[in-house]
Amino acid sequence: MNPTHLIAWFDGHARDLPWREPGTTPWGVLVSEVMLQQTPVRRVAGVWTEWLTRWPTPSSLAAETPGTVIRAWGKLGYPRRALRLHAAATAIAGQHNDVVPADVDMLLALPGIGAYTARAVAAFGYGHRVPVVDTNVRRVVARAVHGMADSGPPSTSRDLSDVEGMLPAMQPARFCAALMELGAVVCTARRPRCADCPVAGECAWVRAGRPAGAATGQSAQRYAGTDRQVRGLLLDVLRTAADPVSRARLDAVWLDAPQRDRCLGALLVDGLVERTGDGRFALPGER
Questions:
Q1: pLDDT in tens, 229-247
Q2: Are residue 102 and residue 143 in the same domain, yes or no?
Q3: Do 86 and 198 fall within a single domain?
Q4: Cα separation of 138 and 159, whole Å?
Q5: Do 190 and 216 meet the contact criterion of CB atoms below 8 Å apart?
Q6: How far, CA to CA in Å, does 37 sit from each of 67, 161, 184, 198, 261?
Q7: Cα 88 to Cα 213: distance, rounded to the nearest angstrom
Q8: What pLDDT digit, counting tens, does each position of 61-82 carry?
Q9: Which of 21, 33, 181, 202 is catalytic?
């Protein structure tokens, strides 16, 4: 795959996303990567901008209570990410002089930071020559390099090796971003737009006649009626309340008592909700 062609395409066609703006700090990159986990770009952009305006440094976020952070997380979903980001900010402020580490291993040592996020911050926050692999990248590589319609089960060593071998000496991080963008908007799982692809002429899958694969893309996950929905409804009550709330107010949000009790218990275990001394419920740090 010709990196020059792909980067040139990215320069002219990349989506206008706020965390790609010049001057975005490594902290801004870290916040974006945590928010984008399992959440569509369209839902993240506005919240990310609000967060970076309100908390431009790790120490500014670390100074808040966890409850304030959960409240600001709003409807992004999977709110444990908010707690993990708060914990990472606290570690960066206290252990790294308020500077997000540039080294992958040091990033991995932060609470709640996994392998993908650590590599993404090193690459997109600091421009380091580090392979960054997500689902979109795996699909592009499977098709363009290996001639397969889908990427099959993930293999960390293989996937990282594939991308590392493709990284150019110049603009390696931009190349990784271009691979991601290509998979997100052109080389999609269900309806790839090969006519618009800047590397179609050298794509092994296209040359092979675009053979079908075993997978055709993941089905949309059901949300209505799930524990995720119930947990969200319970948190919504606490987010909109100025003071701790009674059990009766939480009970009113969902009629299935066993499911509701199970979800409330999980929120307590996860540290997303706390019980006050008088038996009411509040976001953590807001009792």
A1: 999 999 999 999 989 999 9
A2: no
A3: no
A4: 7
A5: yes
A6: 21, 23, 14, 27, 27
A7: 40
A8: 999 999 999 999 988 989 999 9
A9: 33
Residue 202 is among the residues annotated as catalytic for this protein: no
Do both 146 and 32 map to the same domain? no
* 8-43 residue pLDDT tens: 999 999 999 999 999 999 999 999 999 999 899 999
Cα distance between residue 137 and residue 167, in whole Å: 13
Say whether pLDDT at 218 is over 50. Answer: yes
Domain, as residue range, for 83: 3-126
Q: How far is CA 143 from CA 140, 146, 158, 214, 274, in A?
A: 5, 6, 15, 13, 48
Do 169 and 62 share a domain, yes or no? Answer: no
Percent composition of the chain: helix, strand, coil (DSSP 3-state, to 5): 55, 0, 45
Give the number of other Cβ atoms within 10 Å of residue 216's Cβ.
11
Mean pLDDT of 78-92: 96
Tell how far CA 85 is from the center of its chain: 11
> CA 196: distance to chain centroid?
27
